[in-house]
């Protein structure tokens, strides 16, 4: 007899079971006989009466649906998917499930990457990768068809109405349409036309599930734009004023090529803003009148040192504000998701909480890989009260707890505790040695000596005979020392403990690679660079010494995912500009191309013979071209670094029209935005982190989030019974292992440790502690006005939203 | 009969009046007959008995001393002078007073400036200002003697013990000594030797009273140094690793001059950090192997985009922290100063507060320029309770209130209210017109049209015939419109109200200057530049339109003093480096000087004849030299801007030794520090300001601090009596004017408005409101443990610290 009925009355499709929940309800009015322990166990042990088998299986089916929908809600909460995209009926659910798994995501990603990588092969292609037009156009068509398939799945899942309303998807559809037509045109004409729209291919990548961080970055950039543009206008305004002024002041000087027309004046002041032409632009007028330097000093002081910093300040401020708002909305979104899930998991009979049975059902869908032990531990960790039910208040911590990795707390202190006495003493000695400060500082000294050694050795190598095949003996000596250290540490601490520290892992891999390099050298391969690169890396270990560096490096690792996503965002901008650049400027610069321009020297390539010697005069700048996508990327990076970018600009301009400058200027402004955001991000992250450290100075060392839970033998046995009833063999076997282990050591209970690394969200939670409470209150006030949630038992069913899957499926179908 | 006796028993030098306070005390035990009104008035009206005249004058003398000392305490609090430099006896007081007035400060400043400016005339001098060695050495000696005099006054005031303990003064003394000897040596030898110590002359300027802000900046810079250096080391560490790597990777390529030795490798990576040689340094290796760009991209990403931003983050964070700490210590210092002053102003009889009489006495010393009305208003503004005494709690607001400028609130709304009906209507019409949005936006449109006009006009001038003497008619048209606007506004609002707004003042002065320029042009003078500069300035008015710009500009004006002091700090660093640069590098670069170096082109000056045309090929970089102090400053500015700085460095290096690079690299690092601080400062100020605006969104528009106080006629009459008694004729006359005015309008009281602009300190007070209370509590706990202050009446005199002037003078003398 199933004693649980979902609170949200799920009318079955068949209609026959409509009375079942009511029957259940009647039956459940009986007093609850379960005493003390988690009722899931007792539930399971109560024999199922034969006559209500059909009802029971139907109720179970109901429950399965509820579990799945709750899991979907929780996933939406985690991924910040809006609830209006929640699958609305059974058909939609099937499509949703099809479109929400890693296989599908991977397909999405690889299609997008394939489309992006096609530009390596399309004309102007990288020479080695050039493909026939037929080949790459077919590939493109294939990829686009896959995208069509993906979109149709999405449409199935969202329904046409929602699909139309979803902006990003609509843009994607339009781009897809255009790309499709163009691909067919290329295939028909058998020649590439000017296809700037290729720059839009990025949208396929941006729309990928795995690129959520990139989407967030883009959103943040767009949100920071309004204040940025305001200050940019201020900047341009002063630039125009100074350009007019400069034109009046300096154009009478005919030896001054920088201010002879208003356009030149403007362009040169724009370049001056990047300081790229600095002393040069001043020199002709400075040579004539020393006081003209005042004009430039004032200009740079206002524009570069004041307004540009103002720009950073404004963006930083907006960024800060947005970060907080984003955190807030994410937090509240998660909370709402948890509320939705909670409503699907409580029963009519016991509306005050979720029992383990239902929680376990949820986790089966939410985290299929989780083993039975972990599910129970998660449940126990959530359950703050000592009742068998998880209340809504406890359930709010779901996201914090579900990420924990659980491990039985070791009874043994060292790995060698079980060894015979002599071995134990030896290993214990090594352990003490390895943990001693003397050993540590000796190693630091060795590393420092190694560093100095490398420096001196390199300094001595001025002659350049360093391509001799002999491995320097110092290399072998130091490598031996590092090897011995590695051995000692591994034996002293045990391999598991040794490798659990990030720094040790770093030491280990560097030493291992250096050793491999040496081996390869011995077998006469060419891993010379390999060794050279690896040797100084050891020196990085010295940075463990100082707290500030440790802090910096920790923060760096914490920031890494976010930094990578910012880098990817930058690359997406690069891609767009690279495509546009290639379409317009491919092949326009070449050696000696720009002899008529002011930057002719930089593009010169002269091969003249003086006496009997051939002297090559190379300007090299012709290498900074847009001839293929890789070259374009390098050129764009040079433009990002800004120094001497005007040489590239002028070179291209002299070969095309002077409207080309717009491309370069727009690129400068775009990278300025992205770079400012990156700076603001680093600034924000570090200042946040340091404030956090300052605020929590007295608290313990930062080891991530750790939780401890004890499980008694009876509990395990109870869960085994539960699983046995639902005939889950693997889970039962797993749990029985734990019981066996307990028996072996004669324990009545085992202590488990849940551990996960600290995320930015955890830090934010702690920083905004007080404000969060306000947000919650505000949020629940709003919620209450929409739907009575806190007291679901007293509310009539009809007023409860959202509707469950099947309820809606009835209205829709 | 003087009814007040200072609480702090001031033993007179003569000893005869030792009993006077006690007598006073006895007499004052009588019940106070004063009813209701401020007792100062009644005090004054009570007839002075003849027999206690001597006592009275002695008591008054006591009081004068107390007033003065209290004023000194308050000044010390305001200027953040430490109390251990408080004058300890009568002699010290005389010296203190001598050394603390604007005349002395001006002398200090002008001596320091003279010493600094001497470097314009000393070899290598600016050609026009060259002076004979005898002349400038004598001038220097003279200035140094003045400094000696200043120092001796300081020693007199501080006493030898404190003088020795005061670090800054000791450093100054040492520098003075060295400078003195060197000046004499120069005078004797009649030739300048290498005098790098001239760089130390800055200390005379830094030590000036007026340069307090510079001292604070320097302190802040030094306090930010430790974390800065940590990250700098990280930066240099990576630089060394990459230098070694680069050397191994690229030195086999013989056409690559950048990595052929380890030293070159290091120097070029240092320069690359500033991006100054960017694509060039990569080009030779990139030409050989395209993948070598990875080395440079990784290097720049780590060093430039990550660690450099980290540097900013760390400095910004430290800066934030220091700013808050500084604010706290300043606040507590002021509080202590107020406590000290308070203790000197309360009487034995009424220890619960300060009466107006004593407050007035204090203000006579603290702000001699303040008129009687303002003194009384300040007193009233301080007095929150309705008793005649200002309690300590009220007195704590002293600094906030004393800066207010008081003005009688106008009864008339407009300046033309008293005019006859017709005139009134006309002016009222103008007033309404001028205040209307239509008028405002019309003017904005005119300004915008003017802007576009100027742009188009300038664009049309490509030919260059813009030196015709005709004033363009558009100029006259627009100027007329602005003139009419100015007239309308002045008449409509009244000149006083018109000019009280900063923006109107700006409009007014720009229009006036433009008009003056036109006049000058009419009289055939050459103010062409003048007009050109002024015309686009009008466009700045457009920035009133948007709130963000108003915010930005307001903040800019608020920041201006601080920015100026930061600029001055930078200039001081420049001065030091300029002196060192001149001593070592004066005259080393000249046209065609560096033909053997890699930067020969930039220094080339060739005058060759091709056909019948003379072509001058100028590199101009020889102009960036250290030949005199002005040139050095320009060169250093170019080094600050960083672009192409290595050309200057390499030029100088090729003419001297390669150790010269150290000078340039150190300069780069120093400016990096100062610039980072400046950026951090701007960032901090703006973010602070924006947070403040966000926090106080609902509150009224920011008009500075405004306070309202009403004074009744009786009060004024009472004060007049008081002043009459002390025979202060000017004060009496002033006050009587107010009474007359009240009589004229038949009022019984006048409302006064106190106004001052909001300072950063006010903002901080509001931002840290809660924390400030904690600081105060903490501080008073500390204070209490040192001396019982809150209940001075219950404390015995002997336990009261600090001792008053004369008490100490007795112990000292």
Q: What are the SSEs and their pairings?
A:
The structure is a homodimer of 813-residue chains.
Chain A: H1 20-28, H2 39-45, H3 53-79, H4 90-99, H5 102-121, H6 133-165, H7 167-189, H8 202-206, H9 212-250, H10 262-273, H11 278-288, H12 293-345, H13 356-366, H14 372-382, H15 392-395, H16 398-402, E1 405-408, H17 421-435, H18 437-460, H19 473-493, H20 495-499, H21 502-522, H22 528-537, H23 547-585, H24 600-603, E2 605-610, E3 613-618, H25 629-641, H26 645-655, H27 660-695, E4 705-712, H28 713-725, H29 729-745, E5 749-756, H30 760-767, H31 769-786, H32 805-812
Antiparallel strand pairs in A: 1-5, 2-3, 4-5
Helix pairs in contact in A: 2-28, 3-12, 3-13, 4-6, 5-6, 6-7, 9-10, 9-12, 9-23, 12-27, 13-14, 17-19, 18-19, 19-21, 21-22, 23-25, 23-27, 28-29
Structure, explained:
Two copies of one chain form a homodimer. Chain A is mainly alpha-helical and 813 residues long. Chain A contains 32 helices and five strands. In chain A, the strands form two sheets. A three-stranded antiparallel sheet of chain A has the order 1-5-4. A two-stranded antiparallel ribbon of chain A has the order 2-3. In chain A, a hairpin with a 2-residue loop joins strand 2 and strand 3. In chain A, helix 18 packs antiparallel against helix 19 and helix 28 packs antiparallel against helix 29. Chain A is globular. At the A-B interface, helix 9, helix 11, helix 12, helix 18 and helix 22 of A face helix 9, helix 11, helix 12, helix 18 and helix 22 of B.
């Amino acid at each position: 007899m199933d004693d649980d009925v979902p609170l949200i009355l799920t009318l079955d499709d068949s209609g026959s079971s409509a009375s079942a929940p009511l029957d259940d309800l009647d039956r459940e009015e009986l007093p609850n006989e379960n005493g003390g322990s988690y009722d899931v166990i007792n539930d399971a042990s109560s024999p199922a009466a034969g006559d209500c088998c059909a009802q029971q299986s139907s109720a179970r089916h109901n429950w399965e649906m509820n579990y799945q929908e709750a899991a979907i809600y929780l996933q939406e909460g985690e991924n910040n998917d809006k609830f209006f995209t929640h699958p609305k009926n059974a058909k939609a659910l099937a499509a949703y499930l099809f479109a929400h798994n890693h296989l599908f995501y991977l397909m999405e990603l690889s299609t997008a990457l394939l489309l992006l990588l096609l530009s390596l092969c399309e004309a102007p292609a990288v020479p080695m990768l050039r493909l026939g037009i037929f080949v790459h156009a077919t590939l493109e068509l294939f990829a686009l068809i896959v995208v069509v398939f993906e979109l149709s799945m999405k449409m199935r899942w969202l329904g046409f109405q929602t699909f139309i309303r979803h902006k990003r998807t609509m843009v994607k559809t339009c781009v897809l349409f255009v790309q499709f037509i163009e691909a067919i045109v290329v295939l028909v004409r058998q020649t590439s036309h000017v296809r700037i729209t290729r720059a839009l291919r990025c949208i396929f990548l941006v729309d990928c599930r795995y690129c959520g961080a990139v989407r967030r970055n883009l959103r943040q950039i767009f949100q920071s734009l309004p204040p940025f543009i305001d200050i940019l206008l201020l900047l341009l305004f002063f630039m125009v004023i100074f350009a007019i002024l400069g034109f009046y002041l300096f154009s009478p000087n005919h030896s001054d090529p920088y201010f002879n027309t208003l356009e030149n004046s403007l362009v040169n002041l724009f370049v001056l803003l990047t300081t790229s032409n600095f002393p040069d632009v001043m020199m002709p007028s400075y040579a004539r009148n020393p006081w003209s330097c005042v004009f430039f000093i004032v200009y740079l002081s206002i524009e570069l040192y004041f307004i540009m910093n103002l720009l950073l300040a404004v963006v930083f401020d907006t960024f800060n504000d947005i970060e907080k708002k984003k955190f807030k909305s994410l937090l509240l979104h998660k909370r709402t998701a948890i509320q939705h899930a909670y409503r699907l998991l409580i029963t009519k009979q016991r509306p005050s909480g979720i029992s383990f049975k239902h929680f376990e059902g949820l986790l089966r869908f939410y985290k299929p890989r989780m083993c039975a032990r972990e599910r129970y531990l998660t449940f126990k960790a959530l359950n703050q009260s000592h009742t068998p039910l998880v209340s809504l208040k406890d359930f709010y911590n779901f996201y914090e707890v579900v990420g924990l990795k659980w491990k039985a707390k070791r009874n043994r202190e060292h790995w060698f505790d079980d060894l015979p006495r002599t071995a134990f003493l030896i290993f214990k000695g090594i352990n003490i040695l390895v943990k001693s400060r003397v050993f540590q500082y000796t190693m630091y000294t060795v590393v420092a000596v190694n560093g100095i050694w490398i420096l001196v050795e390199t300094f001595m190598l001025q002659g350049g005979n360093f391509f001799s095949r002999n491995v320097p003996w110092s290399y072998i000596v130091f490598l031996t020392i590092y090897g011995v250290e590695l051995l000692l540490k591994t034996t002293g601490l045990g391999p598991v403990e040794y490798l659990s520290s990030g720094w040790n892992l770093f030491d280990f891999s560097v030493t291992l690679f250096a050793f491999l390099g040496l081996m390869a050298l011995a077998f006469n391969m060419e891993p010379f660079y390999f060794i050279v690169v690896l040797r100084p890396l050891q020196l990085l270990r010295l940075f463990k010494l100082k707290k500030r560096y440790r802090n910096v490096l920790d923060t760096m690792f914490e920031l890494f995912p976010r930094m990578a996503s910012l880098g990817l965002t930058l690359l997406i901008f690069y891609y767009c500009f690279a495509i546009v650049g290639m379409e317009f400027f491919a092949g326009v610069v070449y050696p000696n191309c720009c002899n008529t321009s002011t930057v002719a020297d930089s593009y010169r390539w002269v091969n003249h013979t003086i006496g009997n010697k051939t002297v090559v005069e190379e300007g090299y700048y012709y290498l900074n071209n847009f001839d293929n996508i890789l070259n374009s990327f390098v050129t764009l990076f040079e433009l990002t670094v800004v120094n001497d970018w005007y040489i590239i600009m002028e070179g291209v301009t002299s070969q095309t029209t002077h409207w080309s400058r717009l491309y370069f200027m727009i690129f400068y402004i775009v990278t300025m935005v992205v770079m400012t955001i990156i700076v603001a991000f680093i600034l924000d992250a570090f200042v946040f982190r340091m404030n956090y450290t300052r605020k929590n100075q007295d608290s313990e060392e930062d080891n991530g989030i750790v939780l401890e839970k004890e499980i008694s033998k009876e509990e395990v046995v109870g869960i085994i019974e539960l699983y046995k009833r639902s005939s889950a063999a693997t889970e039962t076997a797993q749990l029985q292992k734990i019981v066996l282990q307990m028996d072996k050591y004669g324990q009545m209970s085992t202590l488990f440790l849940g551990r996960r690394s600290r995320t930015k969200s955890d830090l934010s939670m702690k920083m905004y502690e007080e404000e969060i409470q306000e947000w919650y209150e505000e949020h629940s006030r709003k919620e209450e006005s929409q739907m009575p949630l806190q007291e679901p038992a007293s509310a009539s069913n009809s007023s409860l939203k959202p509707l469950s899957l099947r309820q809606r499926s009835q209205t829709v179908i």
